[in-house]
Amino acid sequence: MMLQPASLADPADFAHVREWVFDLDNTLYPHRINLFAEIDRNMTAYVAALLQLEHDEARALQKRYYHDHGTTLAGLMLHHGVNPDDFLEKAHAIDYSRLLPDEGLGIAIKALPGRKFIFTNGTVAHAQAAARALGILDHFDDIFDIVAAGYVPKPAGATYDKFASLTGLDASKAAMFEDLPRNLAVPKALGMKTVLIVPRNLDEVVLEQWERLETSEGREHVDYVTDDLAGFLERLNPFKASERRPG
Q: Is the pLDDT of residue 206 over 50?
């Protein structure tokens, strides 16, 4: 699948959408900011301390759990009985100052008709801190996090079902924005419009092979691909030109 620039977003494909669902990390803020790298380091340190492993061993195990179970936490809970609250608190002890207000993204999200949600494998506190730093928190109706999911992460179908049940989501009128192709498979099957957010310079970032669209089993579940979320959303609001990003 070729990368489709934001200018190719077809407003007609989204005219029915009244439920807007956004992943958080590397979706609402660009991959290049690399905020998740700090969380990643915290998780590696946690695994190393918990299991008394050297750094490289801990990182390899962390990544295996992430790949096999959707999150490192899910693997740690299954195999080691880890307290999820303790893990999440330590994993998200990060500096949010590198996230700056994104006025254009805020305008684009606010202009979308209907309800807006953040659906994350992180915590509400993490989502609130990140969205507040971006200046977009007030534009969302609710946040569904890993705690609300019973610590069962995306891409598990039961987690999407719980999200829909708790929010009253109508999947036939919904769109989901994600940075991981496999996390869009269930939304597509439920009837949602799906948009994959990719790094702006694909050759300059490090992605696991299973995270890449060209090698992912979920590529057939992706309707659109963009490296410019704000621009994509603006395209879906053609009559909001006067409110678009300055400059």
A: no
- Residues 160 and 238 both lie in one domain: yes
pTM for this predicted structure: 0.86
Copy the structure tokens of residue 139: 């534009």
Same domain as 25, residue 51: no
Q: Which two tokens stand for residue 46?
A: 């946690």
- With cut-offs at 50, 70 and 90, classify the pLDDT of residue 34: confident
DSSP character string of 174-213: EEEEES-GGGGHHHHHTT-EEEEE--SSGGGS---GGGSG
Residue ranges in 112-174 assigned as alpha helix (H): 124-134, 157-167
User: Containing domain of residue 192, as a range?
Assistant: 6-30+100-243
pLDDT tens digits, one per residue of 148-160: 999 999 999 999 9
**Whether residue 219 is found in the same domain as residue 136:** yes
Contacts of 36 (CB under 8 A, 6+ apart): 25, 26
> Residue 66: which CATH number?
1.10.150
What 3-state class would DSSP assign to 122?
coil
Q: Would you place residue 8 in the very low, low, confident or very high pLDDT band (cuts 50, 70, 90)?
A: confident
Number of domains observed in the structure of the chain:
2
**C-beta atoms surrounding 246 within 10 Å:** 6
Task: Give the mean pLDDT of 120-132.
Answer: 97
User: Among 12, 5, 20, which residue's Cα sits nearest to residue 142?
Assistant: 20
Whether the predicted pLDDT of 120 surpasses 50 = yes
